Amino acid sequence: MAPYMRLRQICLVAPQLAPVISDIAEIMGLSVCYRDGNVAKYGLENALLPVDTILLEVVAPFKDGTTAGRFIEKTGGRGGYMAIFCCDDPDAHGRRANAMGVRTANVIDHAPYHGVQLHPRDCRAAFIEFNHTEGSDDILGAYPPAGPDWQKSIRKDVTQALVAVEMQSPDPQGLAEHWGKIIGVAADSSELKLPNATFRFVKGAGEIMSALEFRVTDPASVLHAAKARGLAVAGNEFLLGGVTFRLVA
Questions:
Q1: How far apart are alpha carbons 55 and 122 in whole angstroms?
Q2: pLDDT at 38
Q3: What is the longest distance spanned by two Cα atoms in the chain?
Q4: How many CA atoms lie within 13 A of 131 on its CB side?
């Protein structure tokens, strides 16, 4: 199999799913494709919404002592939780990360899905996960975490794509190079370019996944919808689910 690396999923974390999920769906014109009962063993509930072929997930803890709950406490709820990549060989990417001192936090093996999650403290800023679904290298193919029919929930009338992820750090170039080594993509001027999205690294007080950039049909109408849901809009962006939603036409 030819090597590949694509952004598959972004996971946000919230104290409760409501109203974050309904806000995202209403404002961005997206539909929930799945709620995964398998995350209950981690003390979480979730919902996933496809943004074209990238999944946007929100998880919320329903009991004390969860990793997601500690993340909210530590960050004050600011920052994205996980960047999840599909690739040809998650174990090989995990071994490369281990060799540079990035520990494996969890391995998920639910055939045909296999995922390797890396320790957020070692990744810095957010969790990184690599996964692969056997026999599903088509970007519209099976992806078990998003349910059996996730493709049927894709809507593109309002939001067309998730085009970029912004990461903040006091040392953005250093974080870009660190993530580039983990992912296996060379950093170019504080950017990591994947076939379907770009990671941009900018100066900030702490290390967080700070913003998601979406290409939308009509930014003004999306911003109007955000205001109508009671969110504070500044320029072409608003805060939702712990990250800044930034709109481009």
A1: 24
A2: 86
A3: 49
A4: 27
Residue 176 and residue 191 in contact, taking contact as beta carbons nearer than 8 Å: yes
Give the pLDDT of residue 136. Answer: 78
The closest of 204, 196, 210, 217 to 239, measured between CA atoms, is 210
Say how far apart CA 173 and CA 188 lie, in whole Å: 9
* Contact indicator for 32, 21 with CB cutoff of 8 Å: yes
Distance CA 90, CA 1 (A): 13
Burial class (CB in 10 A: 0-12, 13-18, 19+), 127: buried
- Average pLDDT along the chain: 96
Q: Helices marked H in 155-197 — which ranges?
A: 172-183
pTM over the 0.90 mark: yes
CA angle 215/171/234 to nearest 5° reads: 35
CB neighbours of 235 closer than 8 A, spacing ≥ 6? Answer: none
pLDDT of 139? 87
Token pair in block for residue 106: 């969890």
What element of type H or E holds 27? helix 20-28
* Contact partners, residue 38, CB within 8 Å, separation at least 6: 110
Q: Taking the CA atoms of the chain, what radius of gyration do you get in angstroms?
A: 17
Q: What is the pLDDT of residue 137?
A: 72
Phi, psi values for residue 154, rounded to 5°: -65, 125
Angle at 23 between CA 75 and CA 119, to 5 degrees: 30
Of 197, 146, 139, 203, whose CA–CA distance to 171 is shortest?
A: 203
Kindly give the parts of the chain with pLDDT less than 70.
none
pLDDT of 165: 98
